[in-house]
Amino acid sequence: MTAAGDRVSALDWKQIERDLDERGYALSERVLTSGECASLVALYDNRERFRNRVDMARFHYGEGEYKYFAYPLPAIVGEMRHALYHGLAPIANRWAKALRERTEYPRSLAEYVKTCHRAGQTRPTPLLLRYQTGGYNCLHQDLYGELAFPLQFTCLLSRRGKDYEGGESLLIEQRPRAQSRGEAITIEQGCALIFPNRYRPMAGSRGHYRVAVRHGVSTVKSGTRYALGIIFHDAK
């Protein structure tokens, strides 16, 4: 496993689970060094490493762009994806049980990816995102087919306050029969945000209920912001 994969495995997963349950998101310690962040940013202009480029403005997603990696994924991205899934799958299964869903996520990412491929979801979804001055990402959910893993991961590759200003990560929860609740979250280079893909369970007086979650990025006031996104279900 790469050093980054080892760092992911060594995260305090009990604390991450508590934070996800209590706050709806978790912040990780540094999992990528500044050199590893720079190496990933340097891949951005290498067309051979990506299967698709999306101009957000064209689709009214925001202002900026992102590129989906092609298989095989860069080693550091692939190892992190495997290590993250290993830590998150038990949480995903507990959430599914709390929401009385019949879904059961397998123990390994390799098994889950096979399930995606059998469902016709065969295109990799880890991506690099780039926002320049004035860039932003509208609130959304990353759904690419019938299958969707309930948690995902964004690691900041740029230096907040040096490479860019603004560009906070946004999370909005819509609770039933209540107004929306929002969070603006800052992340440091090499650290990451773990958050729900589309909903999470919340304890109520009659058991758990489903809270819808959307995410985005606030306007970058100056500079350029790069981030690595890791999603666990593949796309159609």
User: What is the H/E string?
Assistant: HHEHEEEHHEEEEEEEEEE
User: Which geometry do the CA atoms define?
Assistant: globular
Our measurement of the CA-to-CA distance between the termini, rounded to an integer number of angstroms, reads 28 Å
Please write the CATH class name: Mainly Beta
Q: Percent helix among the residues?
A: 25-40%
> What is the CATH T-level topology?
Jelly Rolls
Please characterize this protein's 3D structure.
- Helix content is 26%, strand content 33%.
- It has 236 residues and is of the alpha+beta class.
- The chain has a single domain (3-230), classed as Jelly Rolls.
- The chain is globular.
- 34% of the residues are buried.
A few lines on this structure:
Helix 1 packs parallel to helix 4. The protein has 236 residues and is of the alpha+beta class.
Key terms for this structure?
eight-stranded antiparallel beta sheet, Jelly Rolls, about 240 residues, 14 strands
Write the layout of secondary structure elements.
Layout: H1 3-9, H2 13-23, E1 26-27, H3 34-42, E2 50-55, E3 62-63, E4 65-69, H4 75-98, H5 109-118, E5 127-132, E6 136-140, E7 151-156, E8 164-166, E9 169-174, E10 181-185, E11 192-196, E12 199-204, E13 207-217, E14 220-230
Antiparallel strand pairs: 1-11, 2-4, 3-6, 4-5, 5-14, 6-13, 7-11, 7-14, 8-14, 9-10, 9-13, 12-13
